[in-house]
Amino acid sequence: xxxxxxxxxxxxxxxxxxxxxxxxxxxxxxxxxxxxxxxxxxxxxxxxxxxxxxxxxxxxxxxxxxxxxxxxxxxxxxxxxxxxxxxxxxxxxxxxxxxxxxxxxxxxxxxxxxxxxxxxxxxxxxxxxxxxxxxxxxxxxxxxxxxxxxxxxxxxxxxxxxxxxxxxxxxxxxxxxxxxxxxxxxxxxxxxxxxxxxxxxxxxxxxxxxxxxxxxxxxxxxxxxxxxxxxxxxxxxxxxxxxxxxxxxxxxxxxxxxxxxxxxxxxxxxxxxxxxxxxxx
Length: 281
Known about the structure:
Largest sheet: 8 strands, parallel
Radius of gyration: 18 Å
Mean pLDDT: 95
CATH class: Alpha Beta
Number of helices: 11
Shape: globular
Helix content: 25-40%
Low-confidence stretches: none
Distance between the termini: 29 Å
CATH architecture: Alpha-Beta Barrel
CATH superfamily: NADP-dependent oxidoreductase domain
Number of domains: 1
Strand order of the largest sheet: 3-4-5-6-7-8-9-10
Strand content: 5-15%
């Protein structure tokens, strides 16, 4: 099983994403069962945010984790840029209440807003000092943002960066991913199998992906996930509301792709040869 180390905690390299969950009350029980299926299969990380469903998804996660040992979970949430200055603690407290816990393991600055970066990380650090978060990080940061952050007095305390990354969206490999590897800043890959769009269908229907999947007696989704975590210190957080699919997602951690298979996937979805704009959903 592949693992990632974040803030000195070792976690499985595939976690549970929750974006777009909680939209339909009719399937709440199914979504809760999906999250639990992931945890029961060996996942520990659950990624959510105050923005998701305006707090509804954090509430959903809170229901799903009832009865689980909190020490065996790794909860990630995110704060909106406008909620950093002065009100961050109130918004964090609201998130903690919805999640039913007194701390989150990793609290991310959801995307960069207009406030000076030093003020933002100072507030995040304050929450860590108070014990309401175990670590802080960022999301949707590109190479220039990360280098600026690193140069701040406490910037090197950043525990992770979460960006869009999958086989069909490899722009961060040109400079950002290598920089984070060199500086030991883990990458959290959101939308690691794409969305329900043409890109996702393009990946799952690709002949090379299907060839590799057949060799492993796996699904196309599992191969795409195995690819997403084949580099060190990359954590993927796929989302699904289907318990069976969630179990399959977690099982992808046990798939090791050969050099020949990685090369075959590179042919279908080449690595970037120049700096590209950061992909953001």
